[in-house]
Amino acid sequence: FKVTEETPDNPEDWGNSDVILAIDADELTFVNSSACEQTMLNYTNTTNNFEHAFKNKTDFAKFTAGLNIPEGHFTSEMKRVAEPKAFCLSQVKRKLHKLKSKFKTNNIELYFSGVGNFRDSLPLPKNNDPLKNGKYKGNRDPDPSAKPLLFNDVKEYLIKHWGAEVVNGIEADDKLCMRVWEGYKSGKKVIGCTQDKDSDGNMGWWYDFTNDPELKGEPVFIDGVGKIWHDTVSNKTAKYVGQGRKWLYWQWICGDGSDNYDPRDIAKQLGIKLKRFGEATAFKLLDSLETDTDCIKAVHDLYLSWYGDKKFTYITWNDVEREVDYIDVMQLYWDCCKMIRWEGDYTDIRAMLKKLRIIE
Fold this sequence. Notes:
Elements: H1 11-14, E1 20-24, H2 25-35, E2 37-45, E3 51-54, H3 57-63, E4 74-82, H4 85-103, E5 108-113, H5 151-162, E6 165-167, H6 172-186, E7 190-193, E8 204-207, E9 220-222, E10 227-231, E11 239-243, H7 245-254, H8 265-270, H9 279-286, H10 292-307, E12 312-315, E13 321-324, H11 326-337, H12 349-355
């Protein structure tokens, strides 16, 4: 497959564009390589090992209609089958060129997550179920074969031909937040391109290109405390969504099942019975609040009601006994949900609570 660059609509105008697109390459690669494969029913002729894939048993029955096939002549198994690699790479290239055309820019940055994500070592609690891993993102399938068949091919292509960068120690989402934050502070239009909901709590320009296949939508500028609302229009299943720092506070108390953390998990391990608390309750808690201080105090009071003001111990996912108080627990889950805005970006929750005069 020979890679050739398509001619942009107005290349003479794009070279001077100030717009920068910072793209989640993990997401771009996963979505497009997934779309280029399907699960088929693979039949093998036991007499000569000839294989052929069919969509289902009905298609195989049509193929063999009228034939007198002895029992055991074919064996079958479900098998993942990928489109030709050249086709998949062309789809990815087309997507990137469409993004360039939409924003009239040649400034594209792509970031892959590497190794050593600092959240992997966060002392999240061990799950009471021995079959479940309490580690950050410990619910993800670690088997490399779980990735789409062409994932590594697309990744190699983006690194070699589009200059994609692999970032270590943090997630690609963190790198996007760092780039978008730089634009936010400098006034440049750096647009983070991702569907990840973590971006909704971070200041700057963001664009969900994955859920906008025709690229007809527009980026949004997120700023300030923001708001949370119940989205009953754009999704088949109504859910709570948000923008601004209030969404970050929402994650601080609701957790993120896809990343395998919930602020009440320690209570579950210790057998502490908490009052029912769900998304609707979280919405009522934060919705009417207008300042960061009010939101943070509400979060503080909630954690205090869950864990009390006395120290206690729990067992981490890697079998370490840890003594903490409720503010340490607040720190732990803040570190889970808050994205990194610059190198060394760290929030000391205890110090912040003292500065805001929420605690003495």
